[in-house]
């Protein structure tokens, strides 16, 4: 048996750090919890003592004293794509500044699994919870209200929503995409989206395209909406289904960049030139979108700002300080190389009045 295996080292206490740093235990506590209130010399001594002794705070004991775990939960629809990477990073950075940790789970687009994850997090004492979208089991809000757990919804915004929300209007955001395509001369526009039964964001994005087309006096036949899983294979299959339903439209609005990637791959396989034969637009502005060839025209969503604001809202709830419970952020169309004027006439009946 090695020394490491057989002997348990005595735990380092707060007063041990104070003795090493030649200060009071209260000063050590202030350095750990509010370092800006301690002068630089004392703070550096305490930080050095913490490193040298390997001191870690007893989170369980602190949670019992403060009735706070210093943990925030986040339940995402999926962790299989990079869609939420910037959002997670912004949330984590904002929480860490106030000494809170973030735990992340995935519902895999299942309201039942989301409720299960939320219940587990609540049982483990999370201080707050972040959600995505407005499609949740009613039991979820009842659970959070019963446990007095503050929560906030992200990635969507509806005026009629009665829950705290930091997001953007998916319906209105689609208007800039449709306006751009119409200005280029497109009259035959289709949509490739996620499954509406899984996501209110998919529903809103389809409704947004339909509303914008109607405003321009353009028709939107049923066979011009294809729903698929949010993945590159889903984008490839979606394009194949669109082609099987009838003539190729002149433009395709994809409700996510990963669907657009799949559509572009399938266009290359089938010899469909983008944007000469088909203009393609995505939604998310993932990091790869400006680097692929051709670079993807896409809708940039305010992921980092949403993350910071959602974290700020929960932190304000914890502190008992005021913060607006509803904020709607702007999106921005990034025009790149996958959109151009149509090179062929639209199908009959697809012209504007």
Automatic annotation (TrEMBL):
Sample GO molecular function, one term: transcription cis-regulatory region binding
Organism of derivation: Lichenibacterium ramalinae
Domain of life: Bacteria
Pfam families: LacI (PF00356), Peripla_BP_3 (PF13377)
UniProt keyword list: DNA-binding, Transcription, Transcription regulation
CDD domains: HTH_LacI, PBP1_LacI-like
Name of the featured protein: LacI family transcriptional regulator
SUPFAM superfamilies, alphabetized: lambda repressor-like DNA-binding domains, Periplasmic binding protein-like I
Domain HTH lacI-type: 12-66
């Amino acid at each position: 048996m090695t020394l490491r295996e057989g002997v348990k080292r005595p735990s380092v206490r707060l007063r041990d750090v104070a003795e090493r740093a030649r200060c009071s235990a209260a000063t050590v506590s202030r350095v750990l919890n509010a370092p800006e209130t301690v002068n630089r010399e004392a703070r550096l001594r305490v930080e050095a003592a913490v490193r040298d002794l390997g001191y870690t705070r007893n989170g369980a004991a602190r949670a019992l004293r403060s009735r706070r775990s210093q943990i925030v939960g986040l339940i995402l629809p999926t962790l299989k794509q990079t869609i939420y990477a910037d959002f997670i990073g912004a949330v984590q950075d904002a929480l860490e500044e106030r000494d809170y940790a973030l735990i992340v789970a995935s519902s895999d687009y299942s309201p039942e699994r989301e409720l299960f994850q939320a219940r587990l997090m609540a049982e483990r004492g999370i201080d707050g919870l972040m959600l995505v979208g407005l499609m949740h089991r009613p039991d979820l809000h009842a659970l959070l209200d019963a446990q007095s757990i503050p929560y906030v919804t992200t990635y969507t915004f509806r005026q009629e929503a009665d829950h705290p929300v930091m997001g953007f209007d998916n319906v209105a955001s689609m208007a800039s995409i449709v306006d751009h395509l119409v200005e280029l001369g497109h009259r035959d526009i289709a949509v490739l989206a996620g499954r509406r039964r899984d996501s209110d964001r998919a529903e809103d994005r389809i409704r947004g395209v339909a509303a914008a087309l109607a405003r321009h006096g353009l028709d939107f036949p049923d066979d011009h909406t294809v729903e698929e899983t949010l993945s590159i294979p889903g984008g490839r299959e979606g394009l194949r289904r669109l082609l099987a339903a009838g003539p190729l439209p002149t433009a395709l609005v994809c409700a996510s960049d990963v669907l657009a990637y799949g559509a572009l791959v399938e266009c290359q396989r089938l010899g469909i030139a983008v944007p000469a034969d088909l203009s393609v637009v995505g939604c998310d502005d993932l990091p790869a979108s400006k680097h692929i060839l051709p670079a993807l025209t896409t809708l940039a969503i305010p992921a980092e700002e949403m993350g910071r604001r959602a974290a700020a809202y929960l932190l304000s709830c914890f502190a008992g300080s005021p913060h607006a419970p509803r904020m709607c952020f702007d999106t921005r169309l990034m025009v790149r190389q996958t959109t151009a004027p149509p090179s062929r006439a639209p199908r009959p009946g697809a012209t504007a009045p």
